[in-house]
């Protein structure tokens, strides 16, 4: 077949001068998701699991907590755990593939952009052949060349530098992302609740919730103890609790740890003082009960609940005492049912018969708290009056006059959050308002043995539920505030002082000294039962060793020595601090004593702990997140910007590869190119004066290939032939002449340094002479 027949209308279509190349778009279609998806998921996993938008992680330290966060309330199901673990494994793999492809893909996209950059797109555009060869060399990968470009000053250098340095930034952002992620984004192991950990909520509240707590996950929660509900606390009977407190006052001792005492962390550091452990197990501990640095709760101090958020009730009490004149004694002990007591005693130092009167205004048989879980404050007061003293001086001692000691107790009741994984294991402050139930794992289970037939409930701000904490105490038998309860235990009808006073009343000194009518073993328990007998804070403690061998006289002396100290405000404060602590502790823990109350052992709200599931999450710093996000954004959006720019312009070749450069070189004057030998970089200097832009020009009938482009003129290239080489595998014409013949008069061609502007895609390419041809 003749050459002419190859170009008949029914023959193969000739290759166009310009076309769109899609390699860059295909590469970015696969590459950008490898970069973007892992980082987006990483940032997501920093703050919450991948499964639920409203879930957050437990915080690793107390300063990261805030009252507004929401937790994994219902717990991880097995599928959630697998998904989280899957992302933790997939992200490093995707990052590794992205790192491998980063430089090749970015450079390939820039190489395709370099072709468009070297085409004449605007009338004022300038580009030398030196610039063109630098683009072909992919100088954005050559840091030495980038440095030398700083000294280029020929026309068009500014735009070339912007392209090269911009490309270098894109390459750098892609290259450093992976090592920076590996160095600055650690993966920490944390614990989160599983659906088995929260089964006691999710299943009891909704038995048909579908949680797979019975299959893939083992039970993870364990009972720590039970906390009284507010309505149950109101049902505590004073006639049973007060005798229990009397016993507690005699057994509290220095050197014995009191588990229900919680010390409040320092306001400045957020941590407990260095003396905390020493206080809780030493003699000095008892002197710190009233310094407002702690509180009382039902569970042992520093109890933690793992991945569960639980709240329990607490009582904070502080006592202050001062001396007043006798005129300050109230003429009438006010209140509907005030506590009043009076004791006579003998002061050894003065040989006088003295009287101590006690008045605590208010109602000693009324529960002082409401059923609300919000913070409540209670103020109580008591007056001690001492009369009948001998004002005459005794040998070695000052005379002492009648006086009054006034004490007040301030108590706050409310809830606090136990230490857990969400607050760094440090218990929270006293809450002013009851927390949102959706942010905790608090749950009131039925406290009966048929609980599986009943439904529990999430505790609200105020509940009246008492469960099995019945019967309610009779009127006047409710447990009062902590100070009044302490006074009942110290001076009330069932107190040690009242019992000893009754036992020794109306007896002569001879009867008191005699032990003949006292059963064996009777005195020892009575002596040991004195308040504060096991501490060194009570004057009566010095009598405890010989009390039993001195008959009733020893008991009476112990009582006198105890009553003697209540006119010293400092000593009274210490005693009342201890007494109030014991009263608060008994109030919050008596329901756990089956021998004390006839309530079932399931009384109260169950408090659980759970270790949870171990998962991994990224833990970069805020600065790392900002910097890496900026790097990823610049890299991804830079590539997308280049891709958008590429799709707007057609190009004569896909890349300025060796074949493209070789074809361009054939149209340069041989004198511009150095011979085959070692040359300096300065050998490129003559090329800076040669126009390197590829433009449109009107096609000529014949091409004078023997002429070459030089510094003083421009030569049109047969770009049709160049286009054939850049589209290997497609059948195309072997020369420009048949193409021009088919196009007819006014056909266009591409030329090195040609003045015609290459139009955007979809528009017609117009030669300077205004002849038009379709692309």
From TrEMBL:
Protein name per UniProt: Uncharacterized protein
Transmembrane segments: 24-47, 96-118, 162-181, 626-646
Keywords assigned: Membrane, Transmembrane, Transmembrane helix
Transmembrane as UniProt keyword: yes
Superkingdom in the source lineage: Eukaryota
